[in-house]
Structure prediction request, 428 residues.
Amino acid sequence: MSEPAPQPPISRRQFISWFGIAWVTFAAATTGAVSIVARFLFPNVVFEPPTSFKAGFPAEYEVGSVDERWKEKFGVWIVRTAEGLFALSTVCTHLGCTPNWLGTENKFKCPCHGSGFYKNGINFEGPAPRPLERYKIGIAQDGQILVDKSRKFQQEKGEWSNPESFLKT
Amino acid sequence: MKFNLKKTITESQIYKSMFRHGYSTSDRDRALSVMTNVFFHLHPVKVRKSGARFGFTWCAGGLSFFVFLTLVVSGILLMFYYRPTVEYAYNDIMALREHVPFGIMRELHRWGAHAMIITVWLHMFRVFLTGSYKPPREFNWVIGVILLVLTMLLSFTGYLLPWDQLAMWAVTVGSNMARATPFFGHEGPGAALLSLGDIQLVHAGSDVRFALLGGRFVGAATLLRFYILHCVAIPTVLVLLISVHFWRIRKDGGISGPL
Prediction:
């Protein structure tokens, strides 16, 4: 008569279910930790200038001029033509540097790689592949110009014909 | 009996506790003195004479490691004087040049960074030319490519720290590439697909560039992030992968022989 097989301390079925629980717990904890780390990198508050700002009254801008008073703080040129005003982004469409307005040559010129733009923002020289972007421009209730940088208009998409991209005077 | 200094030292308990084997001429002891040393054990126990020829390796891998060590030392020294805030960063760099003794320390760090790019590139070039990337070493080549990318990321993150105009705009231009990351960059392919109704999930305030810069453009948060990446995060990963890289040379059969 053979001896009965010794009873294992844990059955195969039990082992597999514990094993499964352990792995699921481990995977969940890892996913949670990675998500926390990823979310941690995105601050809730950033100390940057607001995306929309009031830019004074239209009468303060000369016809035919490129106004640089908001360039430093908000990254916007306000250009006034005979028809009206528009807000031009100061971010070069090549790699993101800030061009300079050269009044004597009547053009925007980027110091990084030499891209040139006409006063209306259209690119004509250098590596920039497309015109400068324009921001939403309108009139606030108190009659001041309101520029909203969260809404942009790109010429190559035909968006400059949008009435919000241009303020008729 | 005559006093023998050498014998007194090498037979003391202190010496023997550190070095288990004498500097013997037997092959076995030589191999053991490599195997039982925590630093040397990453290295192959034996190197083929033909493989160690200067004309075969150019010493490029070893030089890369040597330059990396000088960068670690000079970098730690620079950290004693440099504060990664908008208020102080540029002035601290100026002080490192003008007031701190051995102002060449910062130049050493910068030249070292350039030298490391060159030696890493030379190392990769010679590994390619000698066919040392072929099996069984193909995974070590992959680790090497990651090390190359990390080396360049170290240069890129270090570039911002002087906080001058060159640094600002170079990093502005460089980080703009992250906008075009597929799905994770707000101007990248696929990003427009990730939306809930009218709400874009990936926009300028939630994409991978935002996480890298800590904002929508290069600013105070970016300086701090790049400092942490440059001094802690990337070097840690680099040291880890360098260890694996060296260890695998041994495991994959030592330095490859000439073809």
